[in-house]
Amino acid sequence: WPRTQAITHRRSLQLRGVCVRDSWLSLVSDVLGSGSVPYLQEAPSPLAFYREWVCPNRPCIIRDAVAHWPALHKWTTRYLRTCIGSKLASVAVTPNGYADAVYKDRFVMPEEREMALSNFLDIVEKKSHQPGVFYIQKQCSNLTEEFPELLLDVESHIPWMSEALGQLPDAVNFWLGEEAAVTSLHKDHYENLYCVISGEKHFILHPPSDRPFIPYEMYQPARYHLQDDGSFSVMDEEGAEKVPWIPIDPLDPDFTLYPEYRKTRPFHCTVRAGEMLYLPSLWFHHVRQSHGCIAVNYWYDMEYDLRFQYFKLIDSLTKVVMKEKEAEGCLV
Ligand SMILES: O=C(O)CCC(=O)C(=O)O
């Protein structure tokens, strides 16, 4: 093609791209509404929850969903010390609060330390001072695996969700950490029921339909290691293959490097003690917390149905478009 024709063709494609993007965004906001997460006043019936929230893949917060759990009044640090203080807990330690996150050109995981829960609580309560930010965030059902004693104060599953989905949770996780501990933006293939016992959790959520505007890059996996002088080194994981991760920090997005991220529609919400967030599968989430916040969550495997296939389609198309843009050197 002569150069002018090629430019005209590219412009018309770009214009068409803008039109497609705008109608895509307006379609998505018709379905999902504004950027706030609706509240339900009480736990729903299994059928109603499945029809109104799981199928349309919409988040909601259920007020007082777990207000009846003994944990809400029992789980003080004093109680935890008495009940399970001598038990070993797996704790994630990082220099900056970011475990499993991009740092420079690496995907960096935390130093994983085993310590008596009472020693961990000393750090959270600032009775002892150690370098780093500490967070109990091991996700492979650490509540059932590491602290089964605590299960008596909560529930081993959420009966209406188990009935709605026809399955029990794959994992029941316990979260307790310092204010500086942050979970970087990512998504999971779980229907997530996230219950706050004390304190607050702050979520930034993106629907799966924001995928075209959320960048992924490939990173060498590495891990933090505490040095004798109290600083942390970053050491590559031997033989580990590169992993895809999201380089954007939604609290301070780099729009120069990732201008497309401006087009996302984040939902912000705070989940308080006694409340439960339904965080649908494949929603991107970034999580912060008040100091010493305690939470328990239930991961139910998602159904790998048409919604999942459509997400994979959007994901593949996004990758193709990104590759084409890179090839054109056109990072619009
Ligand atoms: O609470 C957190 O810090 C992270 C929770 C989370 O990412 C999850 O449940 O998938």
The SSE string, one letter per element, is HEHEHHEEEEEHEHHEEEEEEEEEEEH
Give a count of the beta strands, DSSP E runs of length 2 or more: 19
Assign the structural class, choosing from mainly alpha, mainly beta, alpha/beta, alpha+beta, or little secondary structure: alpha+beta
Name of the CATH architecture: Sandwich
- Major beta-sheet overview: 9 strands, mixed
CATH class: Mainly Beta
* DSSP strand content: 25-35%
What separation lies between the terminal Cα atoms? 23 Å
CATH domain topology: Jelly Rolls
Helix content: 25-40%
Could you give me the name of the CATH homologous superfamily? Jelly Rolls
What number of structural domains do the residues give?
1
Low-confidence stretches: none
Number of helices: 8
Shape: globular
With strands numbered from the N-terminus, the spatial order across the biggest sheet is: 1-2-17-11-19-9-8-3-7
The small-molecule ligands in this entry are: 2-oxoglutaric acid
- In round numbers, the mean pLDDT is 92
How large is the radius of gyration?
22 Å
